[in-house]
Amino acid sequence: MATQMFEGRGHAAVYQKYRFAPGKELQQTILSYLQEKKAVPGELAVDIGCGSGQGTHFLGEHFKKVVGTDISEAQIQEAKETPCMPNISYLVCPAEELPFQDASVDVLTVFTAAHWFDIEKFMREVERVVKPGGCVAISTYTVDMSVRYGDCSEKLTKIFRECWDVILKYSHNKVKHVLEDYKTIFEALPFPDKKRITDIYDPIPMTVEGVVGYMESASSYQTFKKNDPKTATSLLQETEKRMLEAMGVSSRETPVEFWVRHVCVLGCK
């Protein structure tokens, strides 16, 4: 069974506010592969574990119909309340029990969610629903992140990572799939035509508030907060204060560049 970490409405709201869409490099990596395999433009794309829809939106331009699915009702509610193209819809279902007919899906995507699934059962569903010649793109951003601003990028990244390291101590054991760059997920994909790219770097435009909010949206931070709310809250407050001091600014709306490294598993049936 999938591990459910983003169930509460409060967590879903934080997730919707602070999680970012796939960056340009990741989007281009996926689109180039789909073009190479002649999978775009296509009829039906399905985005599994879509959360509040950050990754689902970019598929809307390339497919007649896009369906985002997630096991969390709260996440799907957030997704439905966010403006999107009319060809995008959402539904609640587990990744291991997809309500699609055999060989009916042109492209199946998963953005930063596959590590929560029961991988063996999920891959059986992938094999079942994807058309012959259809494609999958399963990606995640990794814990390799940096914060850039003027000449204090090194100091800012150090402050961020000190906070992030504390939060990661509360990670679920399924995060091991992210730490190993989705190697197990790549090996489990039942298509012979497949590849794994581990060095896709994207600068995400954010603010200081956004960087701190991203950490708040992490499942490991939510676990930390449940265990020790006072310490968890003060850690983020102190980290934001340190970042602003390092930058020599007072506004948490100050723009920064948040650099992330993506891993992407691509396959064609």
UniProtKB/TrEMBL annotation:
This one is known as CRG1 methyltransferase
InterPro entries named among the record's database cross-references: Diverse_substrate_MTase, Methyltransf_11, SAM-dependent_MTases_sf
Keyword match Plastid: no
Query: What species does this protein belong to?
Result: Grantiella picta
A Gene Ontology biological process in which this protein takes part is: methylation
Organism superkingdom:
Eukaryota
Q: Which Pfam families match?
A: Methyltransf_11 (PF08241)
Q: Which residues form the Methyltransferase type domain?
A: 46-138
- GO MF, one example: S-adenosylmethionine-dependent methyltransferase activity
Q: Which gene encodes it?
A: Crg1
Record keywords, A-Z: Methyltransferase, Transferase
Q: Could you say which protein family the record assigns here?
A: Belongs to the methyltransferase superfamily.
